[in-house]
Specification:
This protein is mostly helical. 78% of the residues lie in helices and 0% in strands. Helix 1 (2-21) crosses helix 2.
């Protein structure tokens, strides 16, 4: 166990050094959510605020509604970079070299996933900072912030393991960059931008029963005080199986021949 932990820490440092050498990859994870944030707040914010909060609604009330969804989009967007990173390692032969060395088999993927979670949380902090500048005013207590961070780490861990499995399965980095795109789109079809009640019947059903909606509602409740209900339990019920299944899938693919 100590050997596996030490090897995982080494692989984590390797991935973080890659991130420092190529910061554009990490910045691109935050760039698209920031663009969506600014677009919806300053172009549509007044109208959307009145539509969601009633005649007294404003741009400020809408940014409080929107920010949790934008933060969720940041976590989902990070899967692309993780999938590409894992697939690049598989395609360039470095994994084959690792297999010949006295390195724990779990360390390579664990290092990728841990590095992805750290980079995702840095991107989330950057997006949250921009949201605060745009008028986001959370009312969370310290316990609420800790809970929100815990929810985000839980989701980031599940999405990172899923991205790692996709990167192992993809045949090229280009394919790996395209497969996770629907994950980045899913928050748009949840309750991140508008309430599910305003959607057509079929889309409303989908928004209410997809994994990102309970996470968004939990995050929104922790940060701005809206009712959470049983959304936290539903969010955990989505994230834990996704993380477990993705871990098993990635481990199975890693045990196969590197040439795939």
């Amino acid at each position: 166990m100590n050997h596996a932990i030490a090897d995982s820490a080494t692989m984590l440092r390797r991935n973080l050094k890659h991130a420092l050498r190529y910061p554009s990859v990490s910045l691109s994870t935050a760039a698209v959510p920031i663009i969506f944030l600014l677009l919806f707040v300053y172009v549509f914010g007044g109208t959307m605020g009145a539509g969601i909060s009633g005649p007294g609604g404003s741009r400020g009330s809408y940014v409080n509604y929107l920010a949790p969804g934008i933060i969720m989009m940041t976590v989902a967007s990070a899967t692309v970079a993780t999938a590409v990173s894992v697939c690049t390692d598989m395609s360039e032969g470095i994994i084959a070299r690792f297999r010949t060395m006295a390195i724990s088999r779990a360390a390579v993927l664990t290092g990728h996933v841990a590095g992805s979670v750290i980079q995702t949380m840095i991107s989330v902090a950057l997006v949250t900072g921009v949201a605060l500048l745009a008028g986001f005013r959370p009312t969370a207590s310290p316990a609420g912030w800790i809970g929100a961070i815990g929810v985000l780490v839980m989701l980031a861990l599940a999405m990172s393991w899923l991205a790692a499995a996709i990167g192992m399965w993809a045949k090229s980095p280009e394919t790996a960059s395209n497969i996770p795109i629907p994950l980045a789109i899913l928050p748009l079809l949840a309750t991140g931008f508008v309430p599910a009640a305003s959607m057509p019947a079929g889309l409303r059903w989908f928004a209410q029963h997809q994994p990102f909606t309970p996470v968004i509602e939990t995050l929104r409740g922790l940060l701005v005080g809206t009712p959470i209900g049983n959304n936290a339990m539903i969010a955990a019920a989505w994230c834990v199986p996704i993380a477990a299944a993705s871990y098993l899938w990635a481990r199975s693919l890693y045990r196969r021949d590197p040439s795939r």
